[in-house]
Amino acid sequence: MSDFLNNQQPSSRPERSAEPGSREGGALFSARDPGSPASPAAGMTAVLEVSNLSKTFILHLREGARLPVVAGAGFEVFPGECVALGGPSGAGKSSLLKMVCGNYRVDAGSILVRDGEETVNVADTTPRRLIRLRATTMGYVSQFLRVIPRVSALDVVAEPLIGDGVPRDEAVKTAGALLARLNLPERLWALPPATFSGGEQQRVNIARGLIAHRPLLLMDEPTASLDAANRQVVIGLIEDKKRVGVGILGIFHDAEVRDVVCDRVIDVTSFAQAA
């Protein structure tokens, strides 16, 4: 357990398969995790494929004024890599991420997410299928923590594992270990996160988003409210996810974090210009 709590940097040891429920090289492996990651390679199937995606906002309170956001957006994310959406503020990064998550409707194009042997098009799937996709395949770490009031931080973090069928005692133990690794004082674990500072809430949010295995992980400014020490912890956690084959799409305005964890940067300004 001490190695798990203290490891905040990617391990330099050779990668090995890990049994479900084990911790290897500081990485957190839930019961749903695969053993060993695969780096993007020729012939590998993308976990996310975005094609010809377009979105225009209609401002109904401004006489139906149209505000184009992106047009013809296309990219892929493969297992084991972290891809950043890059570009200045207002270029459409957050809108693209919300479209991939299914929070924004799209005007045209497709968002294909691999879900086991099935491929789901987020752009036109049913609400029930989208809920199931989020519960099993697509994780999301937003900028802000939005949870049920009066629920303890420990329960907030453990809930995704419990939803996966992990016994409650094991889920809570794993949640505590992850909160400890993120340097959240144990005296806060039994309190609702609404009482926490912005940085403390973000650490709870990160722990909740990362505790369970999801083949695709979306991250929106995961280190925006963190100090230097906790940014390093998050870097280690992201590298852990990459090692077990998770494909990550994120927005990282923190250049230091982006340069360390991201394998590619997609400049979204070309999509905005096309719009």
Plain-language structure description:
The protein has 275 residues and is an alpha/beta fold. The chain has a single domain, classed as P-loop containing nucleotide triphosphate hydrolases (Rossmann fold, 3-Layer(aba) Sandwich). The protein has 9 helices and 11 strands. Strand 6 and strand 7 (118-121) form a beta hairpin. Helix 4 (153-163) packs across helix 5 (168-181) and helix 4 (153-163) packs parallel to helix 6.
Q: Mean of residue pLDDT?
A: 85
Largest sheet: 5 strands, parallel
Number of domain modules: 1
Give unreliable regions as ranges. Answer: 1-39
| Biggest sheet: strand arrangement | 8-9-10-5-11
Summing up helix and strand content along with how strands pair, one would put the structural category as alpha/beta
What overall form do the CA principal axes indicate?
A: globular
- Name of the CATH first level: Alpha Beta
Report the total helices. 9
Topology at a glance:
Elements: H1 2-6, E1 23-24, E2 27-28, E3 48-59, E4 65-77, E5 82-86, H2 93-101, E6 108-115, E7 118-121, H3 127-136, E8 138-141, H4 153-163, H5 168-181, H6 198-210, E9 216-220, H7 228-243, E10 247-251, H8 255-261, E11 264-267, H9 269-274
Parallel strand pairs: 5-10, 5-11, 8-9, 9-10
Antiparallel strand pairs: 1-2, 3-4, 3-6, 6-7
Helix pairs in contact: 4-5, 4-6
